[in-house]
Amino acid sequence: MKSTPIKQFSPAEFAQAKENSSEQSLFESREKIYPRTTRGWFSKWRWVLVWFTQAIFYGSGWLNWNGRQAILFNLIERKFYIFGLVIFPQDFIYLSVLLVISALSLFLFTTIAGRLFCGYACPQTVYTEIFMWIERKVEGDRTARMRLDKGSVSLHKISRKMIKHGLWLGLGVWTGFTFVGYFTPIHQLASEVLAWTLGPWETFWIFFYGFATYGNAGWMREQVCKYMCPYARFQSAMFDKDTLTVTYDAQRGEPRGSRSKSADYVQQGLGACIDCGVCVQVCPTGIDIRNGLQYECTGCTACIDGCNDIMDRMGYQTGLIRYTTEFALQNGLDNKAMWKRVFRPRVLVYSAILVSVILAAALTLAVRIPLKVNVLRDRSMPRVTETGAIDNVYKLQIMNAVEQSVTFVIEVDGIPGAKILTKNTIEIPGATDRAMAVRVEIPAGSAPAGSNKIHFTVRDEKNADVFVTEKAVFIIPR
Fold first, then answer.
1. Distance of alpha carbon 394 from alpha carbon 376, whole angstroms
2. Which residues on neighbouring strands pair with residue 83, listed in sequence order?
3. How far apart are CA 137 and CA 164, in angstroms?
4. Which of 134, 371, 394, 397 has the smallest count of CB within 10 Å of its CB?
5. How far apart are CA 348 and CA 245, in angstroms?
6. What would the mean pLDDT of 265-274 be, rounded to a whole number?
7. Is the pLDDT of residue 310 over 80?
8. Measured between alpha carbons, how far is 245 from 329 in angstroms, rounded to an integer?
9. Rounded to whole angstroms, what are the CA distances from 245 to 66, 334, 351, 408?
10. Bigger pLDDT: 89 or 399?
């Protein structure tokens, strides 16, 4: 069989073939975004939310309540303290309810006004805002940062970068310390840090969470929102034509074009948009809102403040970029008519369900009995006394869910003449549980052979309204 010779290319032919090939990369290299500073109504509210959320996060761990940390998720002791509320593993149904409330709230707010959570309260947004504020204070605003990055290596550039990253790392580690302080008492954690006696798990999580904050808010920024956050992908399923979104009014703005402030743009056949590009420059994800709603848009409203500032300078009416709905924009509705459609049946149903779940959870917590009892019958065989009486042994696990010491009384019924032979009272310190063995005896002939139901009642010695009744089985030998 005759083989086909392999054609040899000269270096010039290979270079030409490579130039003519239509090769496309599967990955797009990231172009760094330099968001411009904005000032306006929405920007002020965004910073109000930044201060509010971070005051809660950084401050709540240092609050005291009844001689202990006000909010503490003690995984070792398996107790969650939230001010005066003590939650045990048996109460984790409340965690499920909290997740349901969070999900319903997200659905409701998204249906009303799009990505409100992303734009104002999401940790990624909040910390990115803080990190960018530090960056602006150290390196300057947009133009200064771009000039610094493009400039050659110098002592000024190195010092600015070192100061910025030092502050970022410091804030990240402090954030990790605060996060771990909700699981290990924060005063104890601070003492261990100062004494260099920090345990391995606390050390790991402080630096893990700290570097995650540093990486996400300092380096990745919009990449987290665009590529890692699943909410950006399924948000459109919760939007409809009556959802308020950050929208560019193309009917009023187009055709866009530059012009002097004194020019009559209507006579020139232009729209209100002067094509200044400020809406793109202030966007933290680098999109152009004039191209329509995009999944990258986090709803931060920086473009609204930026555009309104330009409209004020030009002497034009503000609101070229604004919160509005698709239906209102297409049909020219005023604000009153638009808001009337915003509160549609879908929103009312979400609101009713959310309020019902919150009220039910609050009511359940309000009437919750701060006592839990588990009864386990001992595996030993029933004992028959000389008089024919029969006794069984049980293990009672009693949990005191209040923070004060309580004495509980144990009673038994279900079989005539049943009585407790051992001690029937126990004092349990606050927010702890104790186990005790209880021997129950019944008279001879008071119940048939086999398995018989009995009931243990554990009640607060001083408060008759606090009691729990649990079923058990009394075995009588045949």
1. 6
2. none
3. 9
4. 397
5. 19
6. 92
7. yes
8. 11
9. 46, 16, 19, 58
10. 399
- In this structure, are residues 213 and 175 in contact, taking their beta carbons and an 8 Å threshold? yes
Spell out the domains of the chain, with CATH numbers in brackets: 41-235 (no CATH), 241-335 (no CATH), 371-476 (2.60.40.10)
User: Closest by alpha carbon to 373, among 404, 412, 399?
Assistant: 399
SS (H, E, C) 237-262: HHCCCCCCEEEECHHHHCCCCCCCCC
Amino acid (1-letter code) at residue 131: F
Q: How far apart are CA 11 and CA 226, in angstroms?
A: 42
Give the C-alpha separation, 205 to 453, whole Å: 50
pLDDT tens digits along 365-381: 888 888 899 999 988 88
300, 45 contact by CB (below 8 A): no
Q: Which residue has the tokens 């709603």?
A: 293
440 in Cβ contact with 473 (< 8 Å): no
SS3 408: strand
Closest residue by Cα to residue 372 from 144, 89, 114, 16? 89
Contact 187, 94 (CB under 8 A): no
Alpha helices in 332-429 (DSSP H): 335-342, 345-366
Mean pLDDT value across the chain: 89
Cα separation, 89 vs 80, in Å, equals 9
Q: Which residues fall within 8 angstroms of residue 53, CB to CB, at 6 or more apart? A: 121, 126
pTM: 0.82
Give the helix/strand (H/E) hosting 54.
Answer: helix 41-60
Q: Determine the Cα–Cα distance for residues 383 and 476; give it in Å rounded to an integer.
A: 9
CA distance 193 to 62: 16
Our CA angle for 87, 90, 96, nearest 5°, is 80
